[in-house]
Recover the amino acids of this structure.
């Protein structure tokens, strides 16, 4: 992709043709050249796949250089975007918070210090940092000890009031409540790994003689483990937290080591337990109980940790399609713009940003795309992708998108196993999206002529057989596009594309298979 900050505006005729086409109308080649006509024919052929017979499909392709719409079918149809929603959330966050934005986590004291005695409460205050690890809370506890505090006469107070108390999205599926990719959102949270899967714990099992041993990362007794698993000839084990509880039940048989990422029920309570144990490990005794509430004004700072910048966080967020990052950033935007760390306030920031950049068809219910009530049109996604090319933060944001066929997890991301050995490899920069019966792919590709193209592919309501390979075929065809020549044998575009995965984002399956 050749980066440029030039603002691109489609001509009036192009826009009129694009938005005049109603649902299910045939696509029209808007460029009279042989290459554009063949492009339309080939994409139509790809979309004739039998898996899409009863499905809904919307596809838009636009030249970033000229603003021409080279292909459009159902450009204005409202479709479920899945994780393509993150394109809007991440762009709004870059614009609103800035690439230098950091999440501070602080420890405050509310009383007076006399020698090693703190007469008052110790407050742990968070602002949503999704990159906090157990070791970071331990480092904060060490700072408290280094400040000379040995005994706290009051309580340990967890201040998560930077965000509201709504933990789960309004429309999230009930059966996702225990899944790490739908973990509860809190201003105080912790991640078990450097994928920064905030709000979850890794539960591991391994055969040890005739017993199954269980461990957690990080080490914690916050979860109540009920181990009913037995050693067997093969590993066929289920690790599942019971809904609305801290209880994790393990059943089945274990031969080889296995691990599962499990969402905690209450991130604030979980973090409080981690921090309290770290304080004790560093010789700081808190006499009172653990409670929650807002730090009083005038509380003095004892320790501080700041996250990586938003510009750096965009990489694990977008490459690995991290839902929790999206929701935390949504609430952070609401807090900054209207002093309300809520979904409604944050979603207003995202939708206002989108509309200010020409997006017309949009319905945002969350920041990640977990909600099936999220709705965008492929034309609106292409409009956003066009508009942000003029932003000063575009190059950082662009590089955070998954890159087709690049095997490095933090480069290729959710596209690292797709389109390998094709002209799209290391060319397509695009955001994936997937729910059951929903898949989408939207982003940028450079044509065979070196022309930058913008595209959005949204496929909804297919019943069986993931059509991600259809997305790949279209993306590869765009990489082959030439205004002066046909791509060659169009039938070859219908062959299987290696690496296309199933219904869920491959990064949502732990350990990630893609």
């Amino acid at each position: 992709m050749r980066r440029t900050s030039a603002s691109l505006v489609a001509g009036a005729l192009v826009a009129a043709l694009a938005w005049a086409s109603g649902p299910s109308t045939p696509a029209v080649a808007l460029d009279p050249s042989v290459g554009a006509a063949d492009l339309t024919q080939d994409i139509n052929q790809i979309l004739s796949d039998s898996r899409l017979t009863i499905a809904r499909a919307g596809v838009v392709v636009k030249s970033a250089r000229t603003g021409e719409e080279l292909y459009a079918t159902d450009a204005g149809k409202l479709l479920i975007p899945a994780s393509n929603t993150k394109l809007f959330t991440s762009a709004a966050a870059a614009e609103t918070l800035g690439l230098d934005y950091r999440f501070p986590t602080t420890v405050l004291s509310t009383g007076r210090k006399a020698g090693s005695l703190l007469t008052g409460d110790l407050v742990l205050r968070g602002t949503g940092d999704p990159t906090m690890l157990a070791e970071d809370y331990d480092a904060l506890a060490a700072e408290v000890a280094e400040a000379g505090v040995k005994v706290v006469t009051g309580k340990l107070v967890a201040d998560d009031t930077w965000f509201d108390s709504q933990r789960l999205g309004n429309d999230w599926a009930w059966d996702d409540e225990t899944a790490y990719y739908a973990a509860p959102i809190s201003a105080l949270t912790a991640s078990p790994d450097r994928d920064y899967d905030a709000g979850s714990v890794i539960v591991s099992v391994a055969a040890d003689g005739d017993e199954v041993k269980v461990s957690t990362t990080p080490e914690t007794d916050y979860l109540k483990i009920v181990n009913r698993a037995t050693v067997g000839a093969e590993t066929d084990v289920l690790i599942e937290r019971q809904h609305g509880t801290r209880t994790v039940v393990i059943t089945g048989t274990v031969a080889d080591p296995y691990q599962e990422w499990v969402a905690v029920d209450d991130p604030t309570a979980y973090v409080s337990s981690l921090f309290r144990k770290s304080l004790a490990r560093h010789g700081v005794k808190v006499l009172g109980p653990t409670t929650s509430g807002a730090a009083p004004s005038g509380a003095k700072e004892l320790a501080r940790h700041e996250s990586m910048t938003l510009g750096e966080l965009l990489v694990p967020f977008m490459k690995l399609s991290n839902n929790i990052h999206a929701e935390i950033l949504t609430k952070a935007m609401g807090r900054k713009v209207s002093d309300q760390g809520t979904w409604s306030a944050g979603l207003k920031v995202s939708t206002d940003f989108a509309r200010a950049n020409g997006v017309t068809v949009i319905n945002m219910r969350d920041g990640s795309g977990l909600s099936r009530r999220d709705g965008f049109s492929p034309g609106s996604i292409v409009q956003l992708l066009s508009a942000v090319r003029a932003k000063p933060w575009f190059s950082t944001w662009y590089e955070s998108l998954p890159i087709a066929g690049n095997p490095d997890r933090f480069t290729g991301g959710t596209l690292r196993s797709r389109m390998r050995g094709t002209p799209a490899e290391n060319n397509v920069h695009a955001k994936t999206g997937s729910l059951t019966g929903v898949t989408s792919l939207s982003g940028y590709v450079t044509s065979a002529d070196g022309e930058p193209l913008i595209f959005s592919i949204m496929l909804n309501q297919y019943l069986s057989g993931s059509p991600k390979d259809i997305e790949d075929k279209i993306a590869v065809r765009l990489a082959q596009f030439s205004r002066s020549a046909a791509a060659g044998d169009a039938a070859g575009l219908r062959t299987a594309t290696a690496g296309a995965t199933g219904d869920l984002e491959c990064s949502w399956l732990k350990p990630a298979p893609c």
Q: What stands out?
A: The first helix runs from residue 12 to 20.
